[in-house]
Model the fold of this input.
Amino acid sequence: MVSTSLLYCLLLFALSAAASTRKSLANSPQGCFRRIDGLKNLGAYRYNSISYCNDRCRRSKRDFAAVKGKYCACGSSLPSVDDVVSDNECDEPCPGYSYVTCGGKKVWSVWAIGSDEPSARLSTTTAISTSTADASSTALETSPEFSSIPSLAHVIEPPASTSSSQPGDKALGEQRGSWLQVPLLGDW
Done:
């Protein structure tokens, strides 16, 4: 049987290998901006967060989202580089989600929005072999539901009676496993 530490090492390796692809698709911070010319303010939301605003902007087919406290804005281009301020100024907690920051007192936090196309999502399953002796496998699945939490992954284990190690087997489809939070490249 494969040790748990080896499984986690393989899991981290698989996540790291996919990180460069994930980075190009995932929500990624673009910086703090004094003004957001070109982005339309959608209004105030009681429980605003980067995830909530990104989802609203993605549905509006926009490429960028900006948050400042309870306010959310969307647009197709970045604000002017002349309006960039220090990232340290984006230090205000989001309303209702104090562990996430939503811009600052007088500045906006701007994010690039990842693709929402099903073919581009990282909801695919990557099979990693944990042991060649018993031909068992474990799969890693990143969840599109948690796209704003880039370090959340689902470890899927096939039933003990699995006799095949082919990725995509019915055993992997049963999705017996647990959610695991691990750091990805770019999240450290």
